[in-house]
Design brief:
246 residues; alpha/beta; two-stranded antiparallel ribbon; 9 helices; 10% strand; disordered N terminus
């Protein structure tokens, strides 16, 4: 989530999302999600409607045996049980992002998770937390890793974070933000690399993601982005080795 304007939280670039990235403003399905959350459509009503959509008893039997298809979990109001503040990564600290900076989902039931995207905030850990809690920022990552290795989880992995500047990548990936600056080699400490590698390895294990550079990518590699993070000083060889050993 690299920004180009320094540590001032109010100057963090709004380029961290584009017209395809923030469904609350630009995506029709995302807009329906938010309206339904406000109006409180009941789960019972959705289940009845879903049964009608399935049609025959044979189809319903298939769903019961195989589990609901992906479109079922994309219906507004159909949610898996969850607990407030529940963590996906052991040892992380729960610090919630603004709800304006992510979209409720039920991954991987509704969208396959097959990518991890690596970011550098171009600022401090405190700045990252501040902007991700700002509803006007329009973007946030699932995790933020501090220089000493401490991890904050700000969005559940099952939800879609607006972090990649690409709607498809948002829906298929988990974003890991790192404290630091792309042009300062000293930003990336051993503690940070090791902690982030354990986090990334855990994500890969949970969703069966291959631990290679095709599936663990930098923000700069996301199609359509104009970001440069994690930058030339991020040691990919070291990082990938730590992930495979974790």
């Amino acid at each position: 989530m690299e920004q180009r304007t320094g540590e001032d939280a109010r100057k963090v670039s709004r380029e961290s999302y584009d017209s395809d990235d923030n469904p609350e403003r630009h995506d029709s399905r995302g807009n329906r999600d938010r309206r339904d959350r406000r109006t409180g459509i009941g789960r019972r009503g959705l289940l009845i409607g879903g049964a009608a959509l399935l049609g025959t008893a044979g189809s319903a039997g298939y769903v019961a045996a195989e589990g609901p298809p992906r479109w079922w979990w994309r219906l507004p109001g159909v949610d898996k049980p969850r607990k407030e503040g529940e963590l996906d990564h052991r040892g992380a600290e729960w610090i919630p992002a603004s709800t304006a900076n992510w979209r409720r989902a039920d991954r991987p039931a509704d969208y396959v998770i097959d990518r991890v995207v690596i970011h550098v905030v171009q600022g401090s850990y405190a700045v990252a937390l501040k902007v991700f809690q700002d509803p006007e920022h329009g973007a946030a990552s699932h995790y933020v890793v501090r220089k000493d290795g401490h991890v904050a989880q700000m969005i559940r992995e099952l939800d879609v974070a607006y972090h990649a500047g690409n709607l498809g990548y948002n829906e298929r990936s988990v974003g890991i933000e790192h404290e630091g600056f792309v042009d300062r080699p000293g930003s990336f400490t051993d503690a940070m690399y090791r902690s982030s590698a354990r986090l990334a390895a855990g994500i890969c294990a949970r969703y069966g993601i291959t631990r290679d550079r095709e599936h663990i990518v930098g923000h700069v590699e996301v199609p359509g982005t104009d970001h440069t993070d994690p930058g030339p000083h991020w040691d990919w060889d070291r990082y990938m080795k730590l992930i495979r050993e974790a």
